[in-house]
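FAQ: What does a ligand-bound record look like?

Like this one, built around adenosine-5'-diphosphate:
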Amino acid sequence: MFNLILFGPPGSGKGTQSEKLISRYGLKHLSTGDLLRSEIASHTPLGLEAKSLMDKGHLVPDEVVIGMISSALDSNAKARGFLFDGFPRTSAQAEALDKLLELKHTSIGVMLALNVSEAELVRRLLKRGETSGRSDDNNELVIRARIGEYHAKTAVVAQYYQHFDKVKLVNGEGTIEEIFRALCKEIDPRLENKVPQ
Ligand code: ADP
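The answer part, i.e. the structure of the complex:
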């Protein structure tokens, strides 16, 4: 199994690059944002609770997202590997993920961290808000709150993996193809060291 975390602030391009990476490497995409939005769309109690937090730009409680990831790992036991997008977003989530993967005799291969300036993040998110239908994208105050949560709670997650020497910084500004190539350049040599499945 090869598992990777695509890391970066809101608007850094994780969703766009995830789509391209899963199709190239055959990984299962696990995006907590997408899982939460699907709970909202199905009007579940969990979705209802999550929506009010997401609309303010706050994080959803750790137990909720850890539970969602745990079931997703169980229901995709045959996957070649996982691409985690938007998770882990706190140190508690990172520790929980390591334990869940350990139970499955696997671990995180690498964390690829997209680096994008704050001005560019806000510009991209406001632009996405024109068409995405996401209520957290079309209000600059909510966008600033999300970036604030990132600095307060999420940025430390990179330090957690840095400790295990698993973090690679990738320039997240440029064309979609340029960024994709830079990500693949980090992944390919790591996959070569794995036994083909
Ligand atoms: P973005 O990366 O653009 O902020 P996401 O789709 O990843 O978008 O997340 C949208 C919202 O969903 C976040 O602002 C947060 O409220 C919630 N969320 C997503 N993933 C997590 C997580 N791992 N922990 C807590 N909240 C989360």
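Follow-up question: can I read anything off the structure? Yes, for example: DSSP finds eight helices and five strands in the chain.
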